[in-house]
Amino acid sequence: MPAMGWAVLALVAIASMALAAVGGALWTRRTAARDCADSLAVRVKLANDSDDMVYLPCGISKDATECHAVQESNHRLTFYDPLTGLPNRRLMLDRLEMVVKGSRRTDRHAALMFIDLDNFKLVNDTQGLYQGDHLLRHVAEHLSSGVRESDTLARLGGDEFVLLIHDLAADQEQAAHAAERVAEKLLTRIREAQQEQALPLTLPITGSIGVTLFANGEICVETAMQQADMALQQAKGAGGNALRFFSHTMQATVMARVHLEADLHHALARNEFRLHYQVQVDARTRVTGVEALIRWEHPQRGMVSPGMFIPLAEKNRMILPIGYWVLETACRQLAAWAQEPERERLSIAVNVSSVQFHQPDFVARLQQILEETAANPHRLTLEVTESLLMDDHQRVRTIMLRLNRLGIRFALDDFGTGYSSLNYLKRLPLDELKIDQSFVNGVLDDSVDAAIVQATITLAASLGLDVTAEGVETEAQHQWLRDHGCEAFQGYLFGRPQPVVELQAEQLSCIYDT
After folding, report:
1. CA angle 295, 300, 304 (to 5 degrees)
2. pLDDT score at 417
């Protein structure tokens, strides 16, 4: 045999050794790790000098249909929301980054809009998740019909959507007007989507939109997201069905709140809270008790108003440790006064947050505080608001009855300012109504305020409840209230909130002659 022939046979022998482990004329090899395709290698038979047969592959064909389907499915799962079919957060962030980078090369503005549905949780709670998903799909369809194909409408999750608009006007005011028109259109689309629901919704579903504009590469992706979210919170805070644009004033306000919240987390550990007490007097202007009012004495900020930090504490649940600190401090004061004959009959009223009241261990914690401080529960009054009483009536009633059996009294604070219901006045173990200061201020020159106060006094008397007028600042108000049957008072006329040391020295042993 010629030398060339022997060389060919040698190559065939080497190939046969590599393929010896594979039997048969055909085989299928899966290569999903590389390209998801099925490969079909066809082998042909070659003869050599022995009786063995050697097979060599002579061709490969691939069916890419399944591969493309798998790739498409993976792409959609990665970049699109399965419920609405809209781009998801990941794809939106990729496009936002492209638009932000592109804005560095042009002076034309882009807009980022955060869109959130108002009252959507009530749809899930009252009509089920299926109906909620159905509404989200309708909303997505209607929103899509109101935007350009070149813009990106995405779903971030839940009832949160986002719209990225690029190539607006170079002039900021013109760009803002264009973005406003789009946002107003989207708010209309959301209302229209509700009308097509298979089941009628008990509450109107509207939207809130926060908008931020940017150009010239002035912000990064994270800042744009933060600004749009700040504007959205402003829109929701305005009651919903509204849009708000981000402003640097808004950012300054938000950052101030962030810093305040950070300080609030350390205030308790740093012993920065104080209790001040405001006296309560009877018809003869004798001091019968006090209301405990928390104050925050910040080392740099000075005295921080409760109106600033209490809502924040309720939102981030810092109100729980703060609230228990107030209760424990007030109970220790009651125990101290119990050792002084001239003050042993004084009571202390403490405001209780609804967040704290609804904690599963609230009754046990309060009972533990009473035992540890040896305070008389009959001298403790818990002030609650109407909003607390409206939530889960039966559970609220059960908690109040358990505490009432310990001897604790309950006062309904700011009566008349919420959604007053005679039903809870009848069913709940209340002992006292407190007339809000806003009504007391107007008893002399506003007939409506005077009528409300008179009706409250009459109602309390008919139900066997005590009534206290808050915010009494002048002797004329005091006299009017006395003439109309009110027998308990609280306000600047009798004393401002003060630390207990000053209060003991100047007021608690006094009888006021007015």
Report:
1. 25
2. 74
- Residues 77-109 as b or e (16 or more Cβ within 10 Å = b): eeebbeebebbbbebbbebbeebbeebeeeebb
Reading phi first (left if > 0) and then psi (alpha if -120 to 50, else beta), residue 317 is in: left
Q: Quick one: pLDDT at residue 163?
A: 95
> Rounded to an integer, what distance in angstroms lies between the CA atom of residue 409 and that of residue 9?
105
pLDDT on residue 247 = 83
Q: Rounded distance, CA 136 to CA 159, Å? A: 7
What's the helix, strand, coil split of the chain in %, to 5? Answer: 45, 25, 30
CA separation for the pair 470, 483 (Å, rounded): 16
Beta bridge partners of 381: 349, 409
Answer whether 0.90 is exceeded by the pTM: no
Tokens at 361, concatenated: 């261990």
Average pLDDT over every residue of 103-111: 83
pLDDT digits (tens, 9 = 90+) for 151-208: 999 999 889 999 999 888 888 888 888 888 999 999 998 888 876 665 556 567 889 9
Cα 49–Cα 55–Cα 56 angle in degrees, nearest 5:
115
Q: How far apart are the first and last CA of the chain?
A: 136
Would you give the DSSP letter of residue 78?
H
Asked if pLDDT for residue 289 goes beyond 60, the answer is: yes
Tens digits of residue pLDDT in 254-271: 778 888 999 999 999 999
| Cα–Cα distance list, 346 to 274, 377, 504 (Å) | 20, 12, 12
**Residues of 334-360 as b/e, b for ≥16 C-beta within 10 angstroms?**
bbebbeeeebeebbbbbbbbbbbbebe
Choose among 260, 261, 228, 221: nearest CA to 247. 228
Residues with Cβ within 8 Å of 414's Cβ and at least 6 positions away in sequence, in order, are 385, 386, 434, 436, 470
Report the amino acid identity of residue 490.
Q
Angle between the N-to-C axes of helices 89-102 and 65-79, in degrees from 0 to 180, rounded to the nearest 10:
80
